[in-house]
Specification:
Strand content of chain B: 15-25%
Number of helices of chain B: 11
Number of strands of chain B: 12
Chains: A mainly alpha, B alpha/beta, C alpha/beta
Distance between the termini of chain B: 53 Å
Shape of chain C: globular
Structural class of chain B: alpha/beta
Number of strands of chain C: 10
Largest sheet of chain B: 6 strands, parallel
Number of helices of chain C: 8
Order of helices and strands of chain B: HEHEHEHEEHEHEHEHEHEHEEH
Strand order of the largest sheet of chain C: 6-7-8-3-9-10
Largest sheet of chain C: 6 strands, mixed
Oligomer: heterotrimer
Largest interface: A-B, 51 and 45 residues
Distance between the termini of chain C: 38 Å
Chain lengths: 335, 316, 246
Amino acid sequence: MTDSAVPKSRIRKQSLLKQIMTMPAGAILLVFVTLQIACIVGALAYPDDFRYLSPQNLTILMKAIPVLGCLALGAGILMIAGEFDLSIGSVYTFTAILMATLVNADVSAFIAAPLGILTGVLIGLLNGTITLRFGLPSFIVTLGGLLFWRGAVLLYNGAVQVRFDPEPIFTSLFAGTFLGVNAAFIWIILFVVGFYLLLHRHKFGNHVFATGGNRPAATAIGINTDRVKLVAFAIAGGMAAVAGIIATARVGSVQPGQGAGLELQAIAACVIGGLSLSGGRGSIIGIFLGVMLIHTITDVLLLLRAPGFYLDMFIATLIVVAAAFNHLIERRGAA
Amino acid sequence: MTLTKMKTAMLAACAAMAFTSTAVAADVKATMIIYLDPSVQFFNPVVKGAQDAAAQFGVDLDVQYANNDPVRQNDLIESATVSGVDGIAVAISSSDAFDASICAAVKAGIIVIGFNNDDLDGAKGNCRQAYVGMDEFASGYELGNRMIEQFGLKEGDVVFNPREIPEASFAVARGGGIEKAMTEKGIKVETVRSGLDPAEAQNIIAQFLIANPGVKALFGTGSVTSTVGAGAIKDAGVNIPFGGFDLAVEIVNAVESGAMFATMDQQPYLQGYYPIAQIALAKKYGLTPTDVDTGQGAFLDKSRISSVKPLIGSYR
Amino acid sequence: MMSSSHLLELHNISKSYGALTALSDLNFHVGHSEVVGLLGDNGAGKSTTVNLISGIQKPTTGHLTIDGEKTMFTCRSDSADAGIETIYQNTALVDSLSITRNIFMGRERVNAFGFLKQTEMREIAMEVLEKAVHISGIDSPDKLVGDLSGGQKQAVAIARAVFFKRRVLLLDEPTSALSVRETEALLAQVLKLKAENVSSVLVTHNLYHAYQVCDRFVIMSHGTKVFDVKKADTTISQLTEYVVLT
């Protein structure tokens, strides 16, 4: 009987680590926490050289994360449903220019912004309809979308930058500070909570995972997989527009050339966060951690005054390592 | 698991190395922020100038690229502000997008010097203490007028001025100068977005020239269009005068051979050298930064180009 | 209780995909409390028949009747409403989801806003796993289906069908991945359901398994029925002959 007492405590200790690892974003959470601890220790040891904990630095982090965060949330939900949207970078720019030009034509920002989001949603639905109706890979359809909407930006307003001068309330709502926290960061937290509830606690979320994880099975069970995917496409487009609103409110103008490459960064954040490229696997918290990890590393490298190239190489390595790691987990199960 | 532990160890090692290097740092810290990405060759002499000044004046220099993204440029400016550098040299490629972050930096006691591109409203529109670069509008105007004079361009003619990034302030300023010179004489300017990729820009320019045989002259705007312009003229099989900006091996060859009339050189080496030097002098001795017009004497035609050739990419 | 019409009947069903004819003039019925074995070699049209009954596909001509009434299934949920539950050959389970979420997939227990009642579903899932099917080695309904063995997955699919059972259970090659013990458990389950007035249609290659539990055999070949016989009136060797020779 004494034999059973000893293994029991060992099992309990192992199961905490194992519990974390079996959580969808467990590994990435561990990496993130480790990184944060290292940074905090470094900041406390060298407060002047490594100003990680200074309030201004935290503000920068809070300002930078929401844009990529919104893009990644939309792209990620669609990825879990088994499709891709490469056009979100172009949609981000197009809807922002649309909103800014409307405001310059004396439309209230509180009308122009929702119109921008609606446009994003419609573009997403267009992507989805073409993909599903013709049975094409969404990768290809949205690749076309990427080029199309980038050109549309120039067609719509020419190759000029557009100032964004909304009512001051609007700017403070999206770029101001609330109780010491940057407003955009509050928004991304709200979105994360909202999408968490939708994806992990709502029946729609179950259908998204089923559609992405095993589409024939979902169809056989009676789930309307086309409808699920269309909603996911709409979310991806809409969130791209939201990202555009947040970025424009912060900077005060829109450049037609901005946003290039953001779609790949969003997908990278999702992959780092544990999403599978073939769908059916992932979590909202993983997406958010992926974004936070990318921006934390960017911030650390900037504070360390490392040349910009290191960042790209670092992120690239991180993506491949994360993808390999997730693949291992998929293959072996949580054992 | 081993993977996580290894990653942590690597990160810790990197951090330790970085800390030791910053600990032995010079007493002046500066960050140079370039708006475009590292593939744009124009900035090689700029960076060399900055590095030479850093070495001579004892400055710890960090060069960052914003990859043509205004959001990223703001992040870079704000990060530099947070890490408490003594000076920031930044290409102010937009009249509005960076006003807030630059003013915040100045307020925090940091010297901010614009280089290469300036706010279109100059010192009135931006908090930067000085601008080191070319008066781009004036240089466009000068080139335009010289080409009109040299090649007898007259009222009713059409000229082509492709622009890499039409909304960027350098394109607005230079293109605007060219347009002013042309409209004063009743000449029309056509323009198109050519992007930053040289091969693609050459195709776009050539195709336009083929499609529009009535074009009487070609004007480059930035270093990319000026580099590929002569090649595009050849591809299109036309014979029109060509003038541009900045320096590259292809540009120098073209001016020497006569395929290109002249180039307006903005002396990029000085655009890197002076801001860093001025930051160091300001920090150490309290000397006030001043504007430097690096385009003075910029006009380089066949008679003045030969000495430049061996220094392309490094000092010119 | 005794009605003159059959529980489920196929009338002159034909199904073509362009030039390819999968089923032609197929007629058979399933009675109340009856286990029917649907046999035939590869390409006979058994899977197409299953798809038609479960509503995933529609017949080109002909119709189905439930309790004598003509019905048209346009989608899967129509057949579910009519009381037909299917266990598919490839189990129709999603590997990346837990057993609970798989059991309730498409039929989640939700509150007024559509949010999942997770505790309730978990409890039911556990109960179903323990009582309805004897599965070796599954101790938690939170386990991911992808971590289960082939036989365990099959058992989860069966548990799902059993839980949602209504009137007819379609089993498409259910024993292909099962061990001997699990096969016995499944066949016992089919008989138990029969006693509870749930009929089954067992599609299988394995004549021995079919002979153990079926009351009647329908043999298909080249898209139509070639033989319809009660168990009492036939032997395994005769059935084998018919399957091989037609």
